[in-house]
Write a structure and sequence with these properties.
Oligomer: homodimer
Number of helices of chain A: 14
CATH topology of the largest domain in chain A: Dihydrodipicolinate Reductase, domain 2
Strand content of chain A: 15-25%
Largest interface: A-B, 60 and 60 residues
Shape of chain A: elongated
CATH superfamily of the largest domain in chain A: Dihydrodipicolinate Reductase, domain 2
Helix content of chain A: 25-40%
CATH class of the largest domain in chain A: Alpha Beta
Number of domains of chain A: 3
Chain lengths: 428, 428
């Protein structure tokens, strides 16, 4: 058991460099913990000459990650290039075909090709592990797949895009508009080259789709996820929600209901005093609910060199220690197709309406809500200098179709001066 | 791989009953996730006839847990009896000697005999797993041993006794005295038969000792832990600390310092806005800090049938899935003796003094602090109807010996009307 486990790393950006640093810094510690030394034998990246602040001289270089993945002196292929398709997928497939274990941080690849890759890996008898793909340094894939394996999971929730949470926090703390907070985050290098990946909820949606697969034993079905970014969240709503005791978060929710699998990544209100409500800045949080464990909350850095490399190394250590697990916690062939829920589960909703300041305006709104079976829990009308009266409504639990019908009917009352805003209040 | 994994369960209290329920309820789910069915073959408990609300008829009964542990039809011995010695230890040793894996929730047994049991288990080539022994349903042993295996852990902190946190929360929320809050917790059945296990910090200290061993690669050394219960925490201190922006928690802290391994389970102040400060009621929280991952926070129910049984089943599933790990994350024989730190690391301290209401009293206190190298960060004197002036002091970072010297010298000033209170402020 003193054979060295040999890593081939493709991709030497922030995370790849972090992995190199850990392997170099902790050689003795890793060997003691894993029972075998871990060494890097070969690397591949876009630029061979870039100074990454680490000594790479002793590693073989490959221009082509596919060639790297097949090298006979590589036992575990560490894929840190990113991208749903292209070289990442080609190299991952090559590694699996060559009988190598794969550790990846690539949520997009797994959200789109998880089923096929899992089937291939399991057929080849190799591990395909992806702790670093979800919520950075938080060992949430492990907690869900292993630690909570005795539970029927009832719901998974998460704030899993640090950039969005940073923007929403800055709007709240500093009173910035969405555009100002976005510009600030961008200036700090927090925003992806394609901003929609962050603020459109796509990146966080990829992560949620992977957790949902493990939680409910279903095939990854990112295409069925309801995605709504934070671009329409206004500073007004953040303030009004705050008055009512809520924070607005880009919240992912996956739950299996009688109507099928519900997967949403949308701006939601959560109680300010809840762990999710208290989460500020770029930190991530995942909440797992199971029939035995009740509720577990995991919090930590969702990105960054050290935390993401920590997650990669956790997977590597599991492989060195001989662990073997199906990719999504049960054999891929037994994962059920995930019938998407045809409607999201009932909830209380936050409504913000701007009404003309005329007698009877509010009565007309209340009538439309009543006609659609929506009852009002709380209502608040604000002082208003002009002719528009801002009105906030928190509904009792309401079926989404009823809400949508009411939202369609409201403009017909002629008393609204703008489009109504409706946000789900998630019970947490 | 369709051989059934057979459990023998010793102890059918809350947790044992919870394990039976999960195995019965989730037979299909567990089999799908683990690749093999899991079944209970034999049980043992104090009373055979007690109605536990579950059907036990199909399981063989043993009066003696040692006999149960040796049964040829048991693959995994599940020890849920408790107690550091006696039947729990005898049966665990018997199981290991008979080549059975062991899953236990017994923190006292491992805190006192962890090294010997780990050596025996590893020599026998069996697993000895104890997720349920630490922080109930939170998969923290797994997170620390496996998920964060790429990190040099720098500090582990935790609120790991729900009873203490419940008492402190009720003192804070409802303004109860310690005695009143204790009586309330006792009435709810939250307090152990020997209350010192809870309020004396012993139970939480056992848990911290186990985490410290994994975190720092040291032998479990519970006897070297600094233990201080919550019995001396007064409602005054809770209120004053609140005024200053802190909560008082029974906080476990383990860290490796230049002076050796520091292990403390003591009442500490933590910022009210931190995750630890926001933790209320019986919920547990563990904070792990590592050189790569920065900080991970895990939160969940620290006790109860479902959560603790969830942790037991997580361990059972790992064993069914073929995982094999050293008990404390590296071979027991490589665990280093833990040289206890001869002094705790420097910290800011909260001091509460009751002074005679005479000119120069405060000057005398300040002089003593200054003479002992303690500088004052903040000071607050409260209105006082009588002749005693309550004074609060927050010090700058201070070495504990200096603090102790000052505390010894203060009564000599003749201006104190009671014993000074000093509580550590932990940076979190």
């Amino acid at each position: 058991m003193t054979d060295t486990l040999r890593l081939g790393i493709a991709g030497l950006g922030t995370v790849g460099t972090g992995v190199v640093k850990i392997v170099q810094r902790h050689a003795e510690l890793l060997s003691r913990r894993c029972g075998r030394p871990i060494a890097i034998t070969a690397i591949s990246a876009r630029s061979r000459d870039k100074d990454r602040g680490v000594n790479l001289r002793h590693y073989a270089w490959e221009d082509d990650p596919v060639v790297l993945a097949r090298r006979p002196d590589v036992d575990v292929f560490v894929e840190l290039m990113g991208g749903a398709d292209g070289p990442a997928k080609a190299a991952t497939e090559a590694a699996i075909a060559a009988g190598k274990h794969v550790v990846t941080a690539n949520k997009a690849m797994l959200a789109h090709h998880g089923q096929a890759l899992a089937e291939a890996a399991e057929a080849a008898g190799v591990n395909l592990r992806f702790e670093a793909a979800v919520a950075g340094g938080i060992p949430v894939v492990k907690a869900l797949t292993e630690g909570l394996a005795g539970n029927a999971v009832t719901r998974v929730m998460g704030v899993m895009n640090g950039t969005c949470n940073y923007i929403l926090t800055r709007m709240d703390d500093a009173g910035l508009t969405y555009e100002e907070a976005f510009a600030e985050a961008d200036g700090l290098g927090y925003v992806e080259a394609d901003p929609e990946l962050d603020v459109g909820g796509i990146d966080a949606g990829h992560k949620l789709a992977l957790l949902a697969s493990i939680a409910f034993g279903t095939r990854v079905s990112f295409d069925d996820m309801k995605l709504e970014g934070i671009g329409k969240v206004s500073i007004d709503d953040i303030r009004r929600a705050g008055d009512l005791g809520y924070k607005i978060k880009l919240l992912g929710v996956a739950q299996m209901t009688g109507r099928g699998l519900e997967q949403r990544m949308t701006p939601c209100l959560v109680p300010s005093a809840s762990p999710l409500g208290q989460l500020v800045g770029g930190t991530n949080m995942v909440v797992i609910e199971g029939d035995a464990v009740e509720q577990i909350v995991l919090r930590g850095p969702g990105a960054g060199e050290g935390p993401t490399a920590s997650a990669v190394m956790g997977d590597v250590c599991d492989i060195v220690r001989g662990m073997k697990l199906p990719v999504f916690g049960q054999p891929a062939e037994t994962l059920a197709p995930a019938p998407p829920a045809n409607a999201e589960s009932p909830a209380c909703f936050y409504l913000r309406l701007e009404l003309v300041d005329k007698p009877g305006a509010l009565a007309k709104v209340a009538t439309v809500l009543g006609e659609n079976g929506i009852s009002i829990d709380r209502m608040r009308q604000y002082d208003h200098p002009g002719a528009h009266a801002p009105v906030l409504i928190v509904t009792h639990k309401t079926a989404r179709p009823n809400l949508d019908a009411a939202l369609s009917a409201l403009p017909g009352t002629g008393v609204l001066t703008g489009a109504p805003v409706a946000l789900r209040i998630e019970e947490v």
